[in-house]
Hints:
Number of strands: 6
CATH class: Alpha Beta
Number of helices: 3
Low-confidence stretches: 6-14
Radius of gyration: 13 Å
CATH superfamily: STAS domain
Shape: globular
Amino acid sequence: MDAPHVVGGSPAVPGSAALEVSPLPGGRCGIRARGEISAPTRTAWERALSELARRHAGVSYVELSDVAFVDVAGVTALAVTAMNLPDGKVVVEKPPPQLPRVLEMFWPGLDRIEVAL
């Protein structure tokens, strides 16, 4: 997962969904996503979260400032990944506005995820 992975259509094409996921720079354990997290990109998102969990060492970061949309299933995959970590937490940085709302609705008090707006 050293190079960005793109699935789906080009973000420049209206009505298409694409997701690019790459490692965070600077030695931080985590990933940066760009695009949309929805049904067409679900497999890539889940694969990226599996890799994140495999490399997890206490605190992992998920940077989402360039994600336009994440659906409930995408938030579910993130929550399940965090709940299955042996220790520590996932810090979600600059998520789209629906992500914290979905977390609060379905997983209130989930202390394995910290949202940094």
